[in-house]
Design brief:
The protein is α+β, with helices and mostly antiparallel strands. It has five helices and three strands. Strand 2 (58-63) and strand 3 form a beta hairpin. It is elongated and about 70 Å long.
């Protein structure tokens, strides 16, 4: 199971989030293609991809001279499982808040 705090920390960066989002939408992409997503230098993209690889969000494979990246299904599944397991808590909390607000409005 991925380290979720590290995963969320990595995705907390807007550039890394954009990279992963594009990989999820389009599938495998080269580092050069990903650079077009975020309009930053190639070395900066490489640093972001290294962070994403180290926390296990993306995989890298080498195709001749190109580095090809893809989102790891296990990492995405871990995020999905975590959010799904906490959904009931948040829905219950929001329902209680709405009931309290409704009750306060009726007392006025």
């Amino acid at each position: 199971m991925p380290d979720l705090p590290a995963t969320f920390a990595a995705l907390g960066d807007a550039t890394r989030f954009a990279i992963v989002n594009r990989l999820l939408r389009e599938g495998e992409l080269s580092a050069g293609d990903l650079q077009k997503t975020v309009a930053i230098s190639a070395p900066a993209v490489s640093r972001h991809l290294k962070v994403l690889r180290e926390v296990g969000i993306v995989d890298q494979r080498i195709d001749k001279q190109r580095r090809i990246y893809s989102a790891r299904p296990e990492a995405v599944a871990a995020i999905s499982n975590w959010t799904t397991s906490h959904r009931a808590f948040w829905e219950g909390s929001l329902d209680r808040l709405q009931a309290a607000l409704d009750n306060a409005g009726e007392k006025r």
